[in-house]
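[Meeting: bench + compute handoff]

Bench side (C.D.) handed over the final construct sequence. Compute side (W.E.) agreed to return the predicted structure before the next meeting so the bench team could plan truncations. Sequence as handed over:
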Amino acid sequence: MMIDPRRPPIFPLTILTGFLGAGKTSLLNRLLKAPELADALVLINEFGEVGLDHLFVEKVDGNLVVMASGCLCCTIRGDLVATLEDLLRRRDNDRIAPFNRIIIETTGLADPAPILHTIMYHPYFMLRLRLDGVISLVDAVNGAATLDKHKEAVKQAAVADRLVISKSDLLPPGDAGLAALRARLKALNPTAVLLDGARGEANPATLLNIGLYDPDRKIPDVRRWLNAEALEERADQDHHHHDHDDHDHHHDHAAGHDRNRHDARIRAFALRHPTPVPPATIEMFLELLRTAHGAHLLRVKGIIALADDPARPLVIHGVQHIFHPPARLEAWPDDDHTTRIVFILEDMEPSFVKGLWDAFVGLAADTPDAAALTRNPLKISPGGLLA
């Protein structure tokens, strides 16, 4: 198939987050020296807060800077939407050097959710950008205390696709605190890949091209993107080691020193269903979750077998009340044809979501006119769900 050269290019976008002092600037400095990022566009908050001066070569205009690596760097002043729209159109009109990917570095106190909402819901960005991944840094020295004190740091870790522990080289070998931090992060977000920055594990190969689509194979890599197996393994371990539920387990550990009080608000689990589900059932399930409980959905990712065409699964991705328009794949990317949905929840029990799912699936199975539900056509609504 010929590619229309007039069609605007689509760019992968990476969000780099982490609490104050976690080491985002140091990681960004290292990444920008790599050839894979020679044609990147980097959006940061203020040049004065980010020590990239040694990479600067010249100002193009205003806040736009060309770095020694070839990257373009720009401050975000005011509206992120206006900044992105302006840069995309300037690139299309050859008014700035071409770039092939975008990195947004957030402030240390930022909640990544509003940025994700912007990328997933804005009509123009839906056509021009695809979320490649969220990278969150956690300081090995102060990370545990930061997670204890600041809920923003916990949310940054909970929504991440990659968790990078920084400054581990400042701790003695075999440090118990580092081991405890690693265990805590794995419990908080089992689906995220955990990397040690000081060991060189955080590099372009591990941090880029981690989204749904594998750029080398040109097909979706759903198993890697979901990593539902990590949640299922975690659930098996918890069931094996504990007689009480996970909620009580967290509070037992927190007793006396207020630790993990923010962690206890986060739940991660994977929902799996063996048979295809009517499209209308999925629509009602997601719409109720989104409208009534969206604030509690830190992240939702899934692949769903639909009864109207089981050979072509549906991929969903949501952050709180915003869901990206679902994509219908041409075929299953692997031999696992079961529905798998990964949930990262805040202040909501997995049992509630599971019960809601069972109720809708059971209702569809018991409905006399279930065939009518199965025939419900798939459309994209303004809210990003099925209509």
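W.E. noted at the follow-up: Residues 243 and 299 are 28 Å apart (CA to CA). C.D. will use this when planning the next construct.
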